Amino acid sequence: MTLHHVVVGVDGSLISVRALDLAADEAARRGAELAVVYAVADSDEAGPVLASALTRVGARHPELTVLTRDAVGGPVRTLVRESEGAALTVVGTRGMGGIAGLLFGSVSLRLAAQVHSPLLVVRGDHPCDDGRPVLLGLEGDSDQDTALYAFQEAERRGVPLHVLHSWSHRHITPELPSLVPATSPGQEQLAQRGRAEDSVPRFTLSRLSEQHPGIRVESRTVRTGPAHALLEATRDCAVVVVGAHHRAHRFGPRLGPVAHTLLHRSHCPVVVVPTAK
Fold first, then answer.
1. Distance in angstroms (rounded) separating the CA atoms of residues 45 and 40
2. How far apart are CA 130 and CA 65, in angstroms?
């Protein structure tokens, strides 16, 4: 298997067919091979699903090299293993928000916290190839790999890049009101934090813009509610790109709150880019 390949997990469901279509589009866009993987309890069950997938991809992209294989075991462990060395891993999710979303989205959530390559999670039938921009959720200077992926995705699609940079002052120590609030220690600390945070998108984006001069970039900063702001922005975008931002947990790494929210409720497909754990 070449290192330049896209992996997609299928299971015969309608949403996995949608994931298969987008994975084939991504592989064709990158000039990469497509690996179609079905994780099953019994390998005899995989034949018809994989054969159908091969036929469907061949009809859409006859020039594409497609490999199919079954793997006995759970989908999360299988796709985490398959993601190693892949340019992109693709899955579908039926997350619908609320309790149903928590149940149906559990595979994509666990996978997003463990994969070795960027993960594209497909939701519904949102239009993706009609010139809509790529959306980047930028949280800090640790998101450079995430930003790079977003620039490359916009370049592959030939569309603009919209950047939403978020930060909040929740870590600033509360203080009693001051008679001169503009010069109080807390206000000065907040102002310094604001200046530092505002410099993050300028530094990261200016460097990448120089490397990708053909990409038109629109950027804005929000200081509260990053998940809500990103959710609203996903209505009009082809795909949203965010970092995983893992949180320590006794059962293993967990996604940060923004990625977690988007996987359940985004209006467009979500790309989660691995970050340092």
1. 7
2. 25
